[in-house]
Amino acid sequence: xxxxxxxxxxxxxxxxxxxxxxxxxxxxxxxxxxxxxxxxxxxxxxxxxxxxxxxxxxxxxxxxxxxxxxxxxxxxxxxxxxxxxxxxxxxxxxxxxxxxxxxxxxxxxxxxxxxxxxxxxxxxxxxxxxxxxxxxxxxx
Length: 140
Known about the structure:
single chain; mainly beta; Rieske Iron-sulfur Protein; four-stranded antiparallel beta sheet; disordered N terminus
């Protein structure tokens, strides 16, 4: 992703004050050239890729429910803990980032390693393997 829209988004590598992210809030920042979604749930802080892997929707404008974020465009859901796609239409995980807290600041500096198995994909949850039905074929 280009650096074009990054002037409005904080550089998470250099850190943000902890009070800049209240409980239940999400914030989009960047690490190098990548947009990262930072989310706070109670005492936990999560960092995942800020773009939906289905059609590129802005996850920062989505809805956070417990430890999941729902894309505002087509309602794909991603785990804030692992980045895995947990509800269709997204089938591919987004990136997951390491979060560090020190001296009253939050820092995000690197991606977490991909799980073993297929590179670029996280293992689907058991319920995702049950199947999916698509009804209709028109413009809707």
